[in-house]
Amino acid sequence: MSGSTNRPRRPRSRHRLATCAQGDAATRESAAEQLTPATPWYRTGAGGHALCVGVLFAMAVALSLALPERAPWAYALTTLVGAWPLARKAASGALAGRPFGMSTLVSLAALGALLIGEAAEGALVVTLFLLGERLEGVAAARARRSVSALAALTPKTARVLEAGGVRVLSAASLRPGQRVRVAPGERIPADGVVLEGASTVDESPLTGESVPRSRGVGEAVFAGSVNGEGALTVAVTRPGDDNLLARTQRLVDEAQRRRSRSERLIDRFSRRYTPGVLAAALLAALLPPLVAGAAWETSLYRALALLLIGCPCALVLGVPAAMTSALAAGARRGLLVKGGAVFEALARVRTVALDKTGTLSQARLEVTDVVPLGRSAEAVLELAGAVEATSAHPLAQAITAHARAAGLSLPEVSAAQALPGRAVAGTVGDVRVVVASPRYAALLTPLGGAVRARVAALEAAGKTVAVTLVGGEVAGLIALRDAVRPEARRATEALRALGLRVVVLTGDNRRAAAALAAPLGLEVRAELLPEAKLRLVERLGPGVMMVGDGINDAPALARADVGVAMGGGTDVALETADAALLRAELTGVADLVALARRALRTVRANIAIALGLKALFLATTLLGVTGLWAAILADTGATALVTANALRLLRPTTAPRPGGR
Question: Active-site residue numbers?
Answer without folding.
Answer: 355
